[in-house]
Amino acid sequence: MSPTPPAVEPLLRTLRYAWRVPLLLWHVLLHLPILLLLMAVGGRIAHAAVRLWAGALLWIFGMRVRCEGVPLAGGTLFVANHVSWVDIIALDSQHMMGFIAKSEIRTWPVIGWIVVQADTIFLQRGNGNSLELVMAEMAQRLRAGRAVAAFPEGGTRNGRELGAFHARIFTAAVAADAPVQPVALCYGARSEAQPIIAFAPGEHFLGNFVRLLGEPARPVRVCFLPPIQPGDHGGRRGIAQTARERVAQAMTQA
């Protein structure tokens, strides 16, 4: 596909806003209350409702999601590369899981409120006591057969590189003897749109949200990769390295 001429892009962005903003308002004001009612019911109906709502939100933003691989059922630690707030929605569109997220997300409009309702475990970054409590809660949920998701890079970057996977986040999986399933989140056919989805320098959540709402449609791949058993790779450091290698490899594939 030939690139859009620079002179035409502002007009196209305006047109995207013209039809996406009403859809977004409809989705939030009408569909979100229905989602919350179904979440209160719980069970498979709630899980299906979350997936549908998240998938529809991504569609409104022009993100055409394709799932590759199969997410494990039960107590699994899902670990993914971290690009933007969109990552949480992309994962929720495919499988129900409780996230480990920074405490600041609570204040984000709409998204923050949703993740609070979705059994998110909030981490106060730089607080050692908070991290210990998070690890204990993760292990407890995994033993109980509940899925947990984390971003082992520890934060978002500019989208141009994959950061190191910190080994400590895998402690809970080792303690609970739970499998780890890496997930590659790929924006664009060959992950070329990662820098676009990522936060720009100095850009906050609301600015990123509005900017992405005007972006052209693009494919998004959510790749569930072969799982890692806790005893197969020499402890948490080996698991972290293996998970990162699998995610990096998947991001380079079309």
Outline of this structure?
This protein has 254 residues and is of the alpha/beta class. It has 9 helices and 7 strands.
Structural account:
This protein is α/β, with parallel strands linked by helices. The chain has a single domain (9-251), classed as Glycerol-3-phosphate (1)-acyltransferase (3-Layer(aba) Sandwich). Helix content is 46%, strand content 14%. It has 9 helices and 7 strands; from the N terminus they run ααββαβαβαβαβααβα. It has helices spanning 9-41, 43-60, 86-92, 111-117, 128-143, 171-176, 194-197, 205-213, 236-251, and strands spanning 63-68, 77-80, 98-102, 121-123, 148-150, 180-187, 218-224. Strands 1-7-6-2-5-3-4 form a 7-stranded mixed beta sheet, sandwiched between helices. Strand 3, helix 4 (111-117) and strand 4 (121-123) form a beta-alpha-beta unit. Helix 2 (43-60) crosses helix 3. The protein is globular and about 55 Å long. The two termini are 16 Å apart.
Find the structural class using helix and strand composition: alpha/beta
* Outline type: globular
Mean pLDDT: 88
Give the helices and strands as they follow along the chain.
Answer: HHEEHEHEHEHEHHEH
Cross-sheet strand order for the largest sheet: 1-7-6-2-5-3-4
- Can you tell me the residue ranges where pLDDT is under 50 for at least 5 consecutive residues? none
Helix content: 40-55%
- Strand runs, count: 7
Please give the CATH architecture: 3-Layer(aba) Sandwich
CATH fold naming: Glycerol-3-phosphate (1)-acyltransferase
Count of the domains: 1
Distance between the termini: 16 Å
CATH class: Alpha Beta
Percent range for β-strand residues: 5-15%
